[in-house]
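Final report, results section. Input specification for complex C-07:
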Amino acid sequence: MRLETRKLLDRSFTASGVMAIVLMTAALVILLAPMFIRGSGAIFFTATVEHRRLMMEKFERGNRPTIEAEIASARSAREPVYQMMAEFEKQVEVMPATERRKMTTQLKELKKALRALLGPAPGETRPMLMRDQFGQTRWDRAQVKLGRVMFREEWDYSHPERGSVKVMKPRVDDFAGTALAPLFPYLTAHLDKMLLPAKTVYWQFLTDESFDSHFFGGIWPELLGTFYLTIGAMLFAIPMGLIAAIYLTEYAPENTFVSFLRTCISTLAGVPSIVFGLFGLAFFINTLGVSQSKSVLVGSMTLALMILPTVIRASEEAILAVPRTFKEAALSLGAGRWHTVMTVILPAALPGILTGIVISMGRAAGETAPIIFTAAVSVGKPLALWQVFTHPTPALSWNIYNLATEHEAMDEIRHVQYGLVLVLVTLVLLLNLTAILLRARVAKRLRG
Amino acid sequence: MTVKGSIQSGIATRSDGSSLLMNHRTRRQQRVVGFLGSGFLLAVTSLSSFAVLFIFYFIARDAFPFFQLQGFKQFFTSAHWYPSSATPEFGSLAIFIGSGLVTLGAALVAVPLGITAAVCLSDVLPFSTRQVVKPVIEILAAIPSVAYGFFALVVFAPLLQERGGQLLQVASWVIGAPVAILGVVVAGDLLTDRIPASSRSWARWILMSVLGAVAFWGLWRLGVSLGGITISSGTNALNVSIILGIMALPTVVSVAEDAIQATGRELREGSYALGATRSETILRTILPAASSGIMAAVILGVMRAVGETMVVWMASGNAAQIPQPWYNMLQPVRTLTATIAGDMGEADQATGSSRFHVLFAMALCLLVFSFVCNLVSEWGVRRTRRKVGR
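Structure output:
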């Protein structure tokens, strides 16, 4: 092969390497961008007057006179809508029977769509579900709901080769020539007066309980649940992991039994996370009876087991990184082995150990599979501290899954799902950032 | 603890300085305390190590009733998965194939990309760039699996469903075009090596343009046929494979990079001294020397993909069927982990039935697989170290 070709190959090799790195970085950006952009929409968004009414009624937030004035002005803007409806209902009364039946069904649909947009009509009895008691609290959702009012979905089967095709039929055509015809242009023109959108920072998203299965409110129970589970897991994993690391680095003789222990630990690191969940169910709940059924305690123990190998390995590495001279100096001054470990080696290894602990904390906070059978429920009140021994809890990771796949109206609460993802990812990234900074400090100290 | 150690600590703790030597009794006390102390440490270490034996035991204990009740044959050879019907069938072949298929797909994404990135990180990039890239890998590893799953389900699946064909077309060009250009240049060079120097230059140009035209025509045809594909459901094996591949990347990169670093300077310097370029050094010297470690990296990446639950549960479609043909990535599949996670909710009420125990049988298969993989990968890491003499 010519030298030029060899050089070309060499350069393209470098290029492909750089390409791989660029692809990896791009994947990270593509992954994180929607989470951060849409996730922040759970906190920063354009809220309607319904949101402020909700805040006032449920949390006593905001200036009551101002909000009441707003509600009154919104109500007066909505009045023509209900007047047109009433007028139309009178018209329907005198229609011939077949047309009346058709119109009544269509009116019913329209009323439903309108209620989803604006909330219950004045004078209507208070609905049972909270999601029906309020109109759209978010302006972006209100736009979607407005579309449902303006258009009617219809499935077109007339082209068998294409299967069913969705067609959007304007409702204004259905009601052409009746008292309801002016309703639709009025709605589009005056929606902002009916809902009074205003930019809002709903930071209480983090600290509010959720209402009506996450239709309204925040994610406090999930945040608290994740906090309990993570702290609980660390309470079990840190002492055990640290002791095991000290034993393996400072005390363990080189024999078959110890190398068997090491193999066990590395096998534990490879166990799939869902198997930990099954084990937690079969051992902690069904065999030991730590709690009657799922509880935070069992979830913590299961998570602790999962992160134990990480803690052990990180601590071992940190202890081994302490220069030998430290240890020799301590021993030559007459300190015992235990004394040396506690006063010289551990303090020197502490930042390294902390790095490992912080990273495994992030892992415990984000993991879902081990807590499915051992700790997680989808809806719950925030737990008090003494309830962790007996009660299951909602958690960030589990509720992301649950709301995105099993919720009855998952499209309606995308912002909550994205908000949950954002909070979880931010939490984990902050923990990792701490670890990176800690490690930088260690590197600096060991160098100089 | 040794006798010597306890004597030393005896001196150190005696603060009044009255006597440097201990009497017989204190010495024995010290020995007992030291012995008990290290015994306690050993006990705790054993407890955390034996957790894995506990896991094996308790999973196996709940898995055996299934094999007693249903036998082995149906479980491994039939694809009829009807656990909740009146006459339940527990044929899990389709589920095993589903797990295998998404793992294969994930490996196809993670292994080439991961090893290239590892080589680039350890041998190509300057130190300052490496400091920037490392956190990227760490963040990729740190993002919780449920966030990956959410991305796969809410962002990626609709995109695949609506613009799947175009995406595949673009991907085929992005991957195919550079490979084609490189292939044409090298082939043109190799084929014209024997031609006398006077006419070599124009012969090479003619050959390259002919080859290039053929290659790009092929690529264009491939792109058109890929662009015509419509994907009926975005939650399928392809989606999951790509996401799992990205998830497995950090594992592959970091383990492979360690293995490549472990080969040491001497090998590289030897190869450079013989006149090899950087790529030749890496491909012919470093990678063979690090091969067992790289194999360990691949195995650990595969383990991550097989054991992953949330992504496949959310975005694989969860259909217990064998894709037609088996390599068809565009069809929904169902994996072992997703079956365990998804069916336990219903099977939990029927503790003791085959329906409950079959999930433990699957978990046992996963456990055995990961155990074997772990042993092989450890052996690989050790072998690399021994080979390069460290």
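Chain B is about 80% helix and 0% strand. The CA atoms of residues 219 and 347 of chain B lie 50 Å apart. This concludes the modelling results for the funded period.
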